[in-house]
Amino acid sequence: MKIDNKLLEVAKVFFKLGLFAFGGPAAHIAMMEEEVVNKRKWMNRQHYLDLIGATNLIPGPNSTEMTMHCGHERAGFKGLFIAGISFILPAVVTTGLLAFIYTEYGELPNIKPFFYGIKPAVLAVIASAILKLGKKAIKTWELAFFGILVLGLSLVGINEIIVLLGTGIIGAFYFYTKHKTSSSTKSVLPLFLLNLGLNGITKLTTLNVFLTFLKVGSILYGSGYVLFAYLKVELVETGFMTNQQLLDAIAMGQFTPGPVLSTATFIGYQLTGVWGALAASLGIFLPSFLFVLILNPFIPKMQKSKFLRGFLDSVNVAAVGIMIAVLFTMARDTIFPEIIDNTISGIESIQTFEWKALLIAVISTSVVFGLKKVNVMWTILGGAALGYILHLF
């Protein structure tokens, strides 16, 4: 049987990204841009920006949905599924293995020294992507103004989906009025699954686990880090998990590569074993495949419509503004983290300065911007190694 070379290429690219994509959605999108735009030329930067803008408007993990869009661009609908599965698989397998260790031994392996160096290295990768995407997104002074406004709103904590939609709508009408060009509009409405919670259920089954995570995957907007709030309601308040178990599960989603939503695998294993892990993983990621399948055909139409072109341009620059806000927050939390100090007077939060993290960030930035031919994967691995070495001192 002849293997489709494009499908094989898609599988290799996104499996590799799934193995090394640490740092959350902004970092994943930055690494993806390096692979599919700069290195492999699957699409131009403007189209990549349009995909980011459109993806931000649907529920689900943004970076995982971006892999599906990129896979579709390279190898059609088969590429969409291959890309998504290849990116998700390493995180699901790794998280499932850690769930087994956690269940058997009651604790997690100490991987914090490696993660310590990855976080500051990721800052340089995100900064590089912001610079490239920002140059393409800021086409006019109006879009520059939108970007600065979104950055400010994001830094003060305004919900990102509200900011994105608001900026898109204002920009669409502004540029439509400015150019006086008529066009028709089409919209894709997200699907919502209702009444699939665990309230009133006394014994969990694999089907319950699947339906619960299917619901969460269908309504989860923005970053996967919002997952904690959803699962606290679904699992902790219903008595199926303790708060500490949920915190450990979220930590695993952050420490392992790939999408943060691999947390579902860890939780599913805790609830009903191997079948629970599979059910939770399938449930939380399945809606993303469906949403991308629905959205993807509309993107070319959005690009051709003058009205929706203004909408996309505004959402694109808003997405860059949000990425800058994410970079600022990550840099602050990485270099000036807060630690909890149990003193005689009570529990206090103390601001600390991590010079080691700053050193890794500076070295990583020098590599990313000074040695442009070096693959970002090596920057991440180098950060992990340097973090481990510095952690010994």
Low-confidence stretches: 181-196
Beta-strand percentage range: under 5%
Q: Helix/strand/pairing class, anyone?
A: mainly alpha
Radius of gyration: 21 Å
Number of helices: 15
Sheet with most strands: strand arrangement: 1-2
**Helical content (DSSP H or I, runs of 4+):** over 70%
Question: What is the end-to-end distance?
Answer: 55 Å
The major beta sheet can be summarized as: 2 strands, antiparallel
Number of strands: 2
The global form is: globular
SSE order, one letter for each helix or strand: HHHHHHHHHHHHHEEHH
Summed up:
The protein has helices spanning 5-20, 25-39, 45-55, 62-105, 112-137, 141-155, 160-179, 206-219, 227-236, 243-255, 263-295, 298-304, 306-335, 355-370, 376-391, and strands at residues 338-343, 346-351. With 393 residues, the chain is mainly α. It has a domain at 5-109 and 136-185 and 294-354.
